[in-house]
C-alpha cells in the first residue's frame, strides 16, 4: 500500500512504487542507487515528495507520497521505546528545491526517532544531491539535538556506512542504559508579569500552562512578578531571576517559560543566571504550530514564522540554548542547524516566501473560480478550542457530507489549515463553509504575518461565524481577542454572527453574562446538536440579506435572458405562458440592474 496524497497520481507510478516492497536493499547502504533513481524519477513526474521507510534489515516497510512523515503504526511498532531509536530510516525526495533538510524533516526525525533522515533533491528527473541527519546520543540518552551532514553530491551516498553509523550511535545507549532510568517529561516553571490586560496574570498563566501541556511539558510551578516594569536586561529583574534559579534547582525543572516575548539578550542573560533553557510564549506557540502543521502551506508558514522570529534573536544565543535547542523538545528548525548555517537562513526565508507566493496564486485562482460560481463563503473563526471544527463537521454531516472530516480535538490549535466544504442551506441553496486556525491572545505577530494567506479565507468570506466557547470563564476576553485579530487581518468590518457554543456544559451565569453583553448571539451546542438549525437559518438570512426579490416578464424573443438568470442561480420560479415567460427571481442589486427592463412589479 502506498500512503499519502495519491490524488491524480497515475496508476503505473503507484504500481511501480508498490513493487519496491519486494526489493531487498543492502542494509549497509543508506539506500541503493537503483531505488533512488526510481523514486526520484516518479517524484519529479508527479511533483510530490516520496518517502521511503527502511528497516535495519534493508526492507522497505512503508512508502508515502506527499509531505507528511507519519509512518503507519505497525511499521513503528517494531521498536517503540522512549529511549531507543525506531530502527527505521526515512529517505525522501525534494522534487523542487534543495537537498537541505527542512525544519519539518528535522522535527519528524526528532519526533519519530528515526535512525536517520535523508533528503535528496532532483535534477533532470535524477537524484542530484543529498543531506542526512541523525539524533545525537549523549550520556546514554537520545538528545533532541540533530547532527546534519551534507549537502553532498549524490554519488557520495555509497560512502555512508549506515549500519556502522547506527551501531556506534547506539553503543552509547546500551553502555549507559543501566544508569539512565526512565525518560521523563520535560518539567517547566512558568513566569508571568502582572499587567493591565483583559486577563489576570493567573488566567494568563493558566492558558500558558495549557500551551506548555500541549507542547508536552509538565508545569511544576508558576511565578507571578508584580513589579509591573519590564527590565531590559532581565525582563523580571536580576533579583527575581536569582530566586527562580534556586526554585529551578529545588524543583529540578528543565525549562523556564515566560508569558511574553523576550529579546535575544534577555534570553541569554536569564539563561546565564537561571542555568537552564529559557523560552518565551511566542517560541512555545510556534513550537506547537510546528508540531501541528500538516499541509505544505501550513508547514511553510510555520517555518517562516520561526525563522523570522529567531533570526534577530540568534545573535545573543547563550551557551545553554545553543547546546540544547529552541523550544520544548526542540521542535522546528534545530538550533544546531540554525547555528551552522546562519547564512542559509536568509536564502531559506526567500525560498519559502517564493513558494508561499505560488501557493497563494493558486488559492486566489480557486477563489476567483468560486466567486464566478456565486457560491457564498462562510468562515468559522474563534478562539482556539472553541469548537469550530466540531461545528463545521456537524453542519456538513447534517447536510449529508461527512467525508474528509476535520480533526476536532480537545487541544489547542488542532486545526492549522483552512478547509472548505459545500453544504446546503435550509432553502436548498449552496454555501461554502470554511474552517480556520484558532486564535489566541498574544498570537505572535510573525505567525499572523505568515498565516495571512490562510487567514485570507476569512477576509474574503461573505459572513464570519465567530464561535465562542460559552463554557469558558474567559469567554468575554476571548471574544475581544478574536475581534482584535480579525481587525488586524483586515476583516473587522465583515458581517459577523456570534455563536455561543457548548451551552450543554456552560453554566447559566456565564451564559446570561454573555447574553446581556452581546444580545445577538445564537446559543448552540455543536456536540449535542442544539439549535444548529437556528444557526443555519441565521447564516442563510445574513448571506442572502442583500438579495432582492423581483418578478420579470421575458418575451420569447429574449430567452437568452433566461439562461443568464439560470447561470447566476437566481431563478426561484418560472412559468411559460402564451405571451412569454414569467419569472420570480431573488438576486443581487447588480444582476437585477441588468435585467431591470423586464421587471413587471417594481419592488
Ligand atoms: N461539551 C461540548 N464540547 C464541545 C462542543 N463543541 C466542541 N466541543 C469540544 O471542544 C473541543 C474542541 O473542539 P474543536 O472543534 O477541535 O475546536 P476548534 O475551535 O476547532 O479548535 P482549534 O482547531 O484548536 O482552534 C473538542 O474536545 C470538542 O469535542 C459542544 O457543543 N459541547
Ligand atoms: Mg479546529
Automatic annotation (TrEMBL):
<dbReference type="GO" id="GO:0003924">
    <property type="term" value="F:GTPase activity"/>
</dbReference>
<dbReference type="InterPro" id="IPR032305">
    <property type="entry name" value="GTP-bd_M"/>
</dbReference>
<dbReference type="InterPro" id="IPR006073">
    <property type="entry name" value="GTP-bd"/>
</dbReference>
<dbReference type="InterPro" id="IPR030394">
    <property type="entry name" value="G_HFLX_dom"/>
</dbReference>
<dbReference type="GO" id="GO:0005525">
    <property type="term" value="F:GTP binding"/>
</dbReference>
<feature type="coiled-coil region">
    <location>
        <begin position="335"/>
        <end position="369"/>
    </location>
</feature>
<protein>
    <recommendedName>
        <fullName>GTPase HflX</fullName>
    </recommendedName>
</protein>
<dbReference type="InterPro" id="IPR042108">
    <property type="entry name" value="GTPase_HflX_N_sf"/>
</dbReference>
<dbReference type="InterPro" id="IPR025121">
    <property type="entry name" value="GTPase_HflX_N"/>
</dbReference>
<dbReference type="Pfam" id="PF16360">
    <property type="entry name" value="GTP-bdg_M"/>
</dbReference>
<dbReference type="Pfam" id="PF01926">
    <property type="entry name" value="MMR_HSR1"/>
</dbReference>
<dbReference type="GO" id="GO:0043022">
    <property type="term" value="F:ribosome binding"/>
</dbReference>
<dbReference type="Pfam" id="PF13167">
    <property type="entry name" value="GTP-bdg_N"/>
</dbReference>
<dbReference type="InterPro" id="IPR016496">
    <property type="entry name" value="GTPase_HflX"/>
</dbReference>
<comment type="function">
    <text>GTPase that associates with the 50S ribosomal subunit and may have a role during protein synthesis or ribosome biogenesis.</text>
</comment>
<keyword id="KW-0175">Coiled coil</keyword>
<keyword id="KW-0963">Cytoplasm</keyword>
<dbReference type="GO" id="GO:0005737">
    <property type="term" value="C:cytoplasm"/>
</dbReference>
<dbReference type="GO" id="GO:0046872">
    <property type="term" value="F:metal ion binding"/>
</dbReference>
<comment type="subunit">
    <text>Monomer. Associates with the 50S ribosomal subunit.</text>
</comment>
<feature type="domain" description="Hflx-type G">
    <location>
        <begin position="376"/>
        <end position="547"/>
    </location>
</feature>
<keyword id="KW-0460">Magnesium</keyword>
<comment type="similarity">
    <text>Belongs to the TRAFAC class OBG-HflX-like GTPase superfamily. HflX GTPase family.</text>
</comment>
<dbReference type="InterPro" id="IPR027417">
    <property type="entry name" value="P-loop_NTPase"/>
</dbReference>
<keyword id="KW-0479">Metal-binding</keyword>
<keyword id="KW-0342">GTP-binding</keyword>
<keyword id="KW-0547">Nucleotide-binding</keyword>
Amino acid at each position: 500500500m502506498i500512503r499519502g496524497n495519491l490524488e491524480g497520481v497515475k496508476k503505473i507510478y503507484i504500481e511501480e512504487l508498490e513493487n519496491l516492497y519486494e526489493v531487498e536493499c543492502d542494509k549497509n547502504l543508506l539506500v541503493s542507487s537503483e531505488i533512488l533513481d526510481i523514486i526520484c524519477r516518479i517524484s519529479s513526474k508527479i511533483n510530490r515528495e516520496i518517502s521511503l521507510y527502511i528497516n535495519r534489515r534493508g526492507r522497505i516497510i512503508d512508502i508515502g507520497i506527499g509531505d507528511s512523515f507519519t509512518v503507519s503504526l505497525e511499521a513503528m511498532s517494531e521498536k517503540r521505546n522512549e529511549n531507543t531509536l525506531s530502527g527505521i530510516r526515512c529517505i525522501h525526495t525534494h522534487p523542487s528545491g534543495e537537498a537541505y533538510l527542512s525544519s519539518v524533516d528535522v522535527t519528524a526525525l526528532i519526533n519519530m526517532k528515526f535512525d536517520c533522515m535523508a533528503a535528496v533533491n532532483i535534477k533532470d528527473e535524477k537524484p542530484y544531491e543529498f543531506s542526512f541527519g541523525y539524533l545525537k546520543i549523549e550520556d546514554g540518552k537520545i538528545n533532541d539535538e540533530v547532527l546534519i551532514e551534507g549537502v553532498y553530491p549524490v554519488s557520495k551516498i555509497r560512502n555512508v556506512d549506515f549500519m556502522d553509523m547506527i551501531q556506534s550511535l547506539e553503543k552509547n545507549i546500551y553502555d549507559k542504559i543501566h544508569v539512565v532510568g526512565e525518560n521523563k517529561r520535560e518539567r517547566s516553571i512558568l513566569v508571568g508579569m502582572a499587567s493591565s490586560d483583559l486577563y489576570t496574570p493567573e488566567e494568563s498563566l493558566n492558558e500558558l500552562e495549557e500551551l506548555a501541556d500541549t507542547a508536552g511539558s509538565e508545569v511544576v510551578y508558576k511565578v507571578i512578578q508584580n513589579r509591573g516594569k519590564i527590565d531590559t536586561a532581565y525582563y523580571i529583574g536580576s533579583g527575581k531571576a536569582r530566586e527562580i534559579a534556586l526554585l529551578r534547582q529545588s524543583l529540578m525543572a528543565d525549562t523556564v517559560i515566560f508569558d511574553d516575548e523576550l529579546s535575544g539578550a534577555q534570553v541569554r542573560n536569564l539563561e546565564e543566571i537561571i542555568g537552564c533553557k529559557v523560552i518565551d510564549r511566542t517560541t512555545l506557540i510556534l513550537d506547537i504550530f510546528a508540531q501541528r502543521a500538516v499541509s505544505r502551506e501550513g508547514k511553510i508558514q510555520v517555518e517562516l514564522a520561526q525563522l523570522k522570529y529567531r533570526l534577530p534573536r540568534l545573535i545573543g544565543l547563550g551557551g545553554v540554548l545553543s547546546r540544547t535547542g529552541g523550544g520544548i523538545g526542540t521542535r522546528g528548525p534545530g538550533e544546531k542547524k540554525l547555528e551552522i548555517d546562519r547564512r542559509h537562513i536568509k536564502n531559506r526565508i526567500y525560498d519559502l516566501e517564493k513558494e508561499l507566493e505560488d501557493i497563494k496564486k493558486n488559492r486566489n485562482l480557486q477563489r476567483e473560480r468560486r466567486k464566478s460560481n456565486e457560491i457564498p463563503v462562510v468562515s468559522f473563526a474563534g478562539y482556539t478550542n472553541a469548537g469550530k471544527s466540531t461545528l463545521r463537521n456537524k453542519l456538513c454531516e447534517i447536510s449529508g457530507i461527512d467525508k474528509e472530516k476535520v480533526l476536532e480535538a480537545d487541544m489547542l490549535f488542532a486545526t492549522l489549515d483552512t478547509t472548505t466544504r459545500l453544504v446546503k442551506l435550509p432553502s436548498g441553496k449552496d454555501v461554502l463553509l470554511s474552517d480556520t486556525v484558532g486564535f489566541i491572545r498574544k498570537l505572535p505577530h510573525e505567525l499572523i504575518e505568515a498565516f495571512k494567506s490562510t487567514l485570507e479565507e476569512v477576509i474574503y468570506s461573505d459572513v464570519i461565524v465567530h464561535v465562542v466557547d460559552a463554557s469558558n470563564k474567559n469567554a468575554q476576553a476571548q471574544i475581544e481577542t478574536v475581534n482584535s485579530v480579525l481587525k488586524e487581518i483586515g476583516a473587522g468590518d465583515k458581517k459577523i454572527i456570534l455563536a455561543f457554543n457548548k451551552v450543554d456544559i456552560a453554566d447559566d451565569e456565564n451564559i446570561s453574562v454573555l447574553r446581556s453583553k452581546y444580545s445577538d448571539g445564537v446559543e448552540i451546542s455543536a456536540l449535542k446538536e442544539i439549535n444548529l438549525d437556528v444557526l443555519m437559518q441565521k447564516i442563510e438570512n445574513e448571506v442572502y440579506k442583500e438579495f432582492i426579490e423581483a418578478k420579470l416578464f421575458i418575451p420569447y424573443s429574449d430567452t437568452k435572458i433566461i439562461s443568464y438568470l439560470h447561470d447566476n442561480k437566481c431563478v426561484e420560479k418560472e412559468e411559460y405562458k402564451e405571451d412569454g415567460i414569467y419569472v420570480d427571481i431573488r438576486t443581487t442589486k447588480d444582476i437585477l440592474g441588468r435585467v431591470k427592463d423586464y421587471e413587471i412589479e417594481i419592488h
